[in-house]
Amino acid sequence: CLLLVFVFFTSCTQDFEEINTNPNSPVAVQPSLLLRQVVYDYGEQMSYEGFTAGNLLGQYTTALDFNLFDRHNLKSPQLGGNPWPILYTNLRDNEIMLNLALENETFAVYEGPSRIMKAYMAAALTDIFGDVPYFEAFRGSNATVTPIYDSQESIYMDEDGILDNLDKGIAAIQNYSGTIALEGDILFNGDLDGWSRFANSLKIKYLIRISDKMDVSQTLQNVVSDGNFISESNQNATFDFTDGEPNNFRLARLRIGDFNNFVLSETMDDILTELNDPRIATLFRPFGNSMSGDFNGLLNGIDASQTSIALADYSLAGTIFRENTGALDANFMTSWETHFLLAEAAEKGLISGDAQELYELGVSQAFAYWNVSLPENYLNAEGAYAAPGTSALQQIITQKWIANMINGYEGWIEYRRTGFPQLQTISASLNDDLIPVRMPYPAEEAALNNVNYSKAAEATEGNSINVRVWWDD
Amino acid sequence: QTIINGTVTDENKVPIPFVNILAVDTETGATTDENGDYSITIPLNSGVLRFSILGYTPAEVPFDTSGTLNVTLTEASEELSEVVITALGVRRETKELGYVVQSLDSESITEVKSINFLDNLSGKLAGVTINQGATGVGSSSKITIRGEASFSNNNPLFVVDGVPINNNSVFNFTNEAAAGFQEIDFGNGAMEVNPDDIAEVSVLKGPSAAALYGTRASNGVIVIETKSGAKSKGLGISYNTSFFVDSAFRLPDFQNTFGQGNSGEFAYVDGLGGGTNDNITYSWGPRLDVGNLIPQFDSPVTLPDGSIVRGGDTALYNGLPITATPFTSNPDNLKNFYQTGTTFINNIAISSGFDKGDIRLSFTDLRSESIIPGVNLDRQTVSAKLGFRPTEKLRINSTISYINSQSDNRPSNGYGSENVNYSLVAWGPRSLNIDNLRNYWQPGLEGTQQYSFNYTFFDNPYFILFENRNSFNRDRVFGNISASYDITQHLTATVRTGMDYSSELRQLRRAFSSNRFSNGGYAEHDVFFREINTDFLINYSNVFNDFKVDVSLGGNRLDQKAFTGQSQTTSLAQPGIFRLSNAASPIEVFEFESNKRINSFYGIAKFGYKDFLFVDVTGRNDWSSVLATPFSVDNTSFFYPSVSSSFILSNVVDLPELVSFAKLRASWAQVGNDTNAYQTTGAFVAQTPFNGQPTFSNQNSIANPNLRPERTSSFEVGADIRFFGDQLRFDISYYNALTEDQIISLPIGISSGFTQQVVNGGKVRSKGLEIIAGISPIISDNFRWNSTLNFSTNRATVEDLPQEDGRLTLAYSRIYDSQNQTVFLQVDEGGRVGDLYGTGYLKNEDGDFILTDEGRYIPDNNLQKLGNYNPDFILGFNNQFNYKNWNLGFLFDWRQGGIIVSRTRALGNVGGQLAETENRPEAGIVPEGVVNVGTNEAPVYEPNTVAVSAESYYRQFYDRNHEENNTYDASFLKLRQFAIGYTFDNLNFFNQNTSISLSIIGRNLFAITENPHFDPEQLAVQGQGFISGIEDMSYATTRSFGFKAGFNF
Questions:
Q1: Residue B876 lies in a domain
Q2: Residue A137: closest CA among chain B residues belongs to which residue?
Q3: Angle formed at CA B437 by CA B435 and CA B438, multiple of 5 degrees
C-alpha cells in the first residue's frame, strides 16, 4: 500500500510544462493579424479621440457638461482626451510586426507597411505631446521599461525616426521581390503601391510640418516630381466604418447622453455659415427648437454650473456620427489633404506648382469625401482661393480644417502651426484664456517613469500645455 | 495487571472522544476513541484512574479488578471548546498547541443565520474581518484573517471535512467605458456552506497553524467540520425553520427643498434636452412645495382624441403640450422603492448511529426575496455524511453536499446606468415620484420602449430590475471519501480523495431601449470550476514513559481546472428573445481556462513531555505547475518549515490560587505562496475582428519566466491564562510576519509598450495583537451569563518595494475608464497596505484651501493619501444569558478607524440630491478658504470673501474628479445580532423525547457611524476583484427581524 502511494507521486513535476502552457491565447501570431489590428485599432480609437477630444480642441464641437477638458483643463479628460496609451500600444504591436518582417524572410512584405505605420503613429505622438519616449520606447519586454524622452527634432530627423522610416518603408516596398502577398491590409487590400503613395503623401505632410525649422523644399520637390503620392480619392488611406456592430463608429454604441453632450461649436458654425457651406447639414443637424432647419453653435468651454443650457437650442453632430456610421471613414491620409498640403507648398514657393489649382482640387475632393456636392459657385464666392478679406493660406488651412473633422487632433495641430482658422477665446477657460499648444503628459508617466518624465517636464515648464513643440517654436 | 474498558460520556449520555486516561502513579495512559470508548492495561492490581479533558471536570475513579468501567464527566464550562480541529483535520487539545486556534460551535453559527455563510462569522472571531458586498441578498462577502499582507492574494483557504473548497468570486466580462455590461457580483464560493450542516468551525489564523495546508494557507484557514450521525443512538430527527423580514438599513439623507433642474429652472419636454434643463437630472431646479406648476415626465398630455398619456411617453407623443402639474417633494421616494424582503430557511436532518457506522442526511431549503424589487436567491442543499467501520481496524468516511443556487436577478454593481442607484440616488431628482415609474413601458410599445423620467443617461429603475435581469443557476458538489486503516496499534494509514465541482450558467438580458443597449443585448456566461485533492497520510503515535510522540507523513496532489466563458451580443434582432441565435450583431466571445497542479509532501512530528511541554515540527515541500514555463520546471519546488511549542506553566509551578490555568506558547513558521497560471509566458490576445477577420494584440503584461514563490515568515507568541476556576479567561496572541518576494503585477508606463510587469519583490511586515477574553461571571444552576470579547488590531507596513521609487498601485476603483475619477489603492515604502490615494484641491501650508479671486477651488492633480481603509481595531462583544429554559444573546461589532471614499457623497451632492446641499442662499455661498493677495514667491493669504452660487459651490466642492472631500470615517458600532428564545424540553411526542426551541432573532438592528447615507460596511467591485474602502453607489443593506423554531426528536 505504501509503495503504491509513492508510485502515485512518481515525479513531482511531471507534465508541469504542459499544464502551465496557456491554452487560451497563442504565444506568437502571423504579422497579418497584427497589421489588421494596428490599422483598425488606431483608426477606431483615434477617430473616437477625434470626436470626443480633438473636435473640442479644434473647436468643431463643444461639450455641454462634464467638460473640464473643453475648458482647457487637459489633465481632466472625460470621454477620450488621453491618446497616449492608444499610440504606444499600437506602436508596440507594430514593432512586433516590423521585427517579424526583419527576422523572417517569409514576412518581408510586412516591412514597408510596418515602417510607414511606425512613422505615421510616431508623428501623431510627437505632434500632440512634443518630446516623448521613442527610441527606447514600446519594447519593454526586451529592453527598458523606463524609456528616456527624445527630442521631437530627433524623432523627425534621426535614423529610425519618422522621415527615415518613410524612406526605408518605400525602399522596402520597391525592393520587395517575394511572391507572398500582404495580408490583413484593410487600407489597400494588399496593394503595395497604395502603401508607397500613402508614404509619399505622409512625407509631404511631415516635411511641411517641419518646414519652419528645416529647408525641405528640395526633398519636397523630389517627392512631388516623382508623382507617386495619393492624388485620387480612390487612393485614400481610409477604411470604412460599418452601420452595425462591432465595426461601427464608437459614438453609435455609446449612450445617447454621451452623444448629446457634444454640440456644434460657435467657431465651426461661424466658419461654415460664412462659407455658406452645405457640409454643415452632413456634419451637424438642425437644432431641436428650430422651426426652419437652422443650425446653431455654442462658444466652447462653458461653466455648466453657472449656465442654463437648453440642448434643443444647439445643433448636435450629424447622423453620420451615430445613426449612419456606415458612411463614415477612419481617415489616415487622403488625396484632398495631400492637395491642400501641396497647395500650401506651392503658395510658399517650396515646390513649383499652381497653388490655386491644387487648392480647388482639394476642395472638390474634400466635398466628395463627405458625400456633399460642391455648390457651383463655391469656389468663386466665399470659398474662393482669393476670397476678399482672406489669405490663400487661411483658405487652404480652413478648408483642410473643415474636412479634417474627427481626424484625431489634426485640425488643432495645424491651427498651432498656421494659426488658422482663428479659434475663439473660450467661455470659461481654466487655462488663462490661452489655447493649449500641446497635450500634457499623462499623470501615470510621472508615477511610473519618473526620472525621465521629470526631465521632460522641466523642459516644458512643468508639463505646461502652453509650451510650444519644436516645429512650432 | 488489570485490563479495563468502558465508555466515557457526558451528562447527556453523549460519548466524549479523546478523553485522557491516566493510571495515577504510573506512566500508563490511554485516550478514548471517537465513540468515547477506551481500553487500558495497567501494571497494577488496584489504583485510581484519572479521566481528564479540558472543558470537563476531571474524574478520579478507583479500580481493583479488570472489567468494564463507564464514566460520566461533567462539563466545567461551556464557553471554549477545548478540543479543536487543527490542520489536516486532526482534533487536538488546545493546551498542546503552540499557536492560537479559535473555534465556533454549531449553535453560535446557526443562532441567527445569514444567507452568506461568512457573515455568520462576523464579530465572533478575533482577527477575522468580514465585509459584506453592496448588492443585497446573494452578494459576496470578503474575509481576511490578520489583515492583508500580500499585494496580490489575501484569501484564506476553506476546508470542509478535510478537503479544500473554493471561495472564488468570478465576475462577468465588462467594458470599463460607459457602455456594455457592468460588473455583477454573483457571490463567493464559501457563501454556500450550509450553517445547518456545520458541527464546528475552526480558524487557523497564522502560518504556524496553517503551514501544513501549503501554498494557499499563508492567509489562514477556515476549517469546517460537518455534523455526523455518530451522536444519535437510534434515529434522530431535527427540523429547524427560520423566517426573516428584511427592511432597508440606512438610506441616504436627501434634501427635499429643491427639485429637478439647473440654475433654478426646469421644464420637461422630452427628457433629452428638448425642454429646459431636462437632459440631465440635477436637483438644482426650482423650489418644491411652493405651488409651482411645472411640466414633468408624469404630467398629463391630452391627445387630440381626448385620451390622456404621460409627458414621458415621448416615443409616440413628443411635441404635444404637457400640462404643468404641482412641483412637489417626495421625501420617501427611495424608501418606497425598496420593498420588504423575506427569507425562509428550512432544514430537516435525519441522523443515526449504529454499531458499525453512522449516517446523517440533511436537506435545507433557502428562499429569499430581496428588499430590491425583483432580486432573489433560492438555494437547496442536500448533504449526506456516512461513517462505516466494517472491521475494528478499518474506517471509511464520506461526506457529500449538492447545492443548487439560483437567482432571477442579481443587480449590477458600480457607477453607471445599469445600477439603479445611478438613477435613484446620484441622479434621481428630488421631484421624482417613484410610484409613477412602476408602469415602465410606453403604451403600445411594450417590450420595445421604456418609459422613464429621462432618456439621456438614465433607465427607469423598475425597467432595469424587471427587464434587464442577470440571472444565474449554479450546481455545486463537494465531498470526499476517505479510508483509514490501523496497521498496528501505533500505525495508521489514511487515503482520501475529495472534489469541489461547480458549473454555472448566467444569463444577462437587456431589453430594447436600454440606455446602454438601444437594441437590447444578451450574454451567456459559463463558469466552471473543478478541484480534486488526493492525499495520503501515515501516522505513528506512541508513548514512551514521559514522552508522547506522534509523527505523520503525507502527500497531496491538487488538480485544478477553472473556465469562464462569456458569449454576448450587444444588439438583438427581435425584442424579448434572449438567445444568441437572436443576435443582430456578431457574437463576441471572451474565454479563459486555467489549469494548475500542485504536488506536495509534508510531515509533522509532535512531541509531548509529561503534561506541560509540547513541541510540533512540520515541513512541507510543494511543486507548483504555475511556476513552470513551457521549457523548464526549475523554479517549481519550494520547501517551508515550522516549529511551535506550548508550555503549561500551571502544571509546573504553583501559581496563586486565583490562577486556574496558565499556558505560554511560541511558534515560528514559513509558508510559500504561488500565483495564477500562465504568468511565466507572454501571449497574444484576440481583439475586435474587422469585417469578420481576426485581429490580435500582444498582452499588456510582461511575463516572467523566472518567477519564484512568495514567502511568508511568521513569529507568534501567546498566552492562555484563566482565573477564578476558568470564569475569567484571557487568550492573548502577538504575531509578527514578513511577507517577501511577493509576486506582483508591477505597473509600468505604457510608453514601454506594456502596462504591467510580473516580478518578485516587496516586503510587507504584518504585526498584530489579538485578545480573546471570556467572562462567565455568573454560573448557577438556573442562570448563566457568558461573554466573549474578541479584540484585534493589525498593521501591515510596506518595508520594501520592487521599484526604485514611487508607489505601487495594487488596485483602483474608478468611474468608467476615467483615470481622473479614480481612487488608487497604492503602497509606498513606509506606508501601509490599504492606503487610498486620490486628488483634491490646492491648499496652503496651514491646510486652508487656496481659492482664485473668483472664489474657485484650484484642482491639485497630484495624488495624495486620503487615508487607510483598515480599522485601527476590531472588537466583537458576544453575550449569552441562560435562565432556566430562556436564553438571550446579542453581539456587538465595533470597528474603529479607517476611511471610506463615497461615490454616493460625490455624485449625490454634485447632483444636488443629498441633504448637504439643502442650504442654497440667494446671495450664494462664500467658499471657506484663502486668497493669495501677495505674489507667487511671497504669498499672503487672506480669507476669501467672494461668494459663488450655491450650485456652483456644491458642484465644485464634491466634484467626482477629486476624492478628498468625499471621504468618511468608516468607524461603526453595530448591533450585529440578537436572539431571545425559550426551549420546551422533555416533551413526549410519539413516545419520543422531544424538545422544541423557539426564538425571536434579529440582524443588523442598529449602527452608530459618521456618515448619514449608507452602511459603512462596503465592498466595491472593479475589474475582476473587490476593492475595500470604497462605497460605489451601493444598495441599502438590510435590517432583519425574524423567528426561529427548532424541533428535535
A1: yes
A2: B752
A3: 75
What's the gap in Å between the CA of A177 and the closest CA on chain B?
27
State how beta strands B992-1003 and B157-160 pair.
unpaired
All cell numbers assigned to B383: 448533504
Task: Enter the DSSP assignment of B391.
Answer: S
Q: Which domain holds residue A408?
A: 31-245+327-472
- B40 and B163 inside one domain: no
How far off is chain A from B703, nearest CA to CA, in Å?
8
Q: For residue A24, give the nearest of B538, B592, B806 by CB distance.
A: B592
The total number of structural domains that make up chain B:
2
Confidence of residue A4 (pLDDT cuts 50, 70, 90): very low
Q: Is the pLDDT of residue B34 over 80?
A: no
The answer to which of A313-327, B217-231, B615-629, B705-719 has the lowest mean pLDDT is B217-231
Asked if residue B289 is part of any domain, the answer here is: no
**DSSP code per residue over B102-161:** EEEEHHHHHTT--SSGGGGGTTTSTTEEEEE-SSSTT--EEEEES----SS--PPEEEET
CB contact, 8 Å: B951 with chain A?
A: yes
Pairs across A and B, CB distance < 8 A: 292
DSSP string, B1019-1048: EEEETTEEEETEE-SPPPEEEEEEEEEEEE
For the stretch A12-36, pLDDT in tens is 888 999 999 999 999 999 999 999 9
CATH number at residue B768: 2.40.170.20
A149-158, B83-92, B904-913: least confidently modelled range: B83-92
Provide CB contacts within 8 A for B518, sequence distance 6+: A256, B512, B571
Q: Is residue B47 part of a domain?
A: yes
Residue B61 and residue B171 in one domain: no
Window from B211-215, B423-427, B604-608, B737-741 with minimum mean pLDDT: B211-215
Q: Is A2 on the interface with B (CB under 8 A)?
A: yes
Question: Which residues of chain B have a CB within 8 Å of the CB of A448?
Answer: 747-749, 806
Alpha carbon separation from B299 to A223, B261, B287, B446, B967 (Å, rounded): 68, 16, 18, 20, 38
pLDDT for the residue numbered B543: 87
Do B784 and B669 have their domain in common? yes
B58 and B161, same domain (yes or no)? no
Q: Residues 266..325 of A with a Cβ closer than 8 Å to B: which?
A: 288-289, 303-312
Provide the pLDDT for residue B750. Answer: 94
Residues B551 and B408 reside in one and the same domain: yes
CATH assignment at residue B26 = 2.60.40.1120
Q: Is the ipTM reported for this complex over the cut 0.90?
A: yes
Q: Is B909 a member of any domain?
A: no
The CATH number of residue A434's host domain is 1.25.40.390
Decide which of B53, B72, B91 is a domain's last residue.
B72
Q: Could you say which of B72, B89, B107 is where a domain stops? A: B72
Question: Under an 8 A CB cutoff, do B178 and A244 touch?
Answer: no
A82 lies within 8 A of chain B by CB: yes
CB B456 within 8 A of CB B427: no
**CB-based contacts of B576, cutoff 8 Å, min separation 6:** B447, B511
- Domain membership of residue A253 (yes or no) is no
Asked whether residue A292 is domain-assigned, the answer is no
**Any idea how long chain B is?**
1049
The residue-averaged pLDDT of B921-939 equals 93
Residue A372 maps to a domain? yes
- Give the structural domain span for B182: 157-250+340-418+468-834+869-898+971-1048
Q: How confident is the model at residue B92 (pLDDT cuts 50, 70, 90)?
A: confident
- Structurally, chain A folds into a number of domains equal to 1
Q: Which of A21, A140, A247 sits opposite B752 (nearest CB)?
A: A140
Q: Kindly state whether residue A13 falls inside one of the protein's structural domains.
A: no
- Interface touch B752/A146, C-beta < 8 Å: yes
- pLDDT by residue (tens digit) across A63-120? 999 899 999 999 888 888 999 999 999 999 999 999 999 999 999 999 999 999 999 9
pLDDT tens column, B118-167? 998 988 999 999 998 888 888 999 999 999 888 888 899 999 998 999 99
A23 contacts on B by Cβ (under 8 Å) = 593, 595
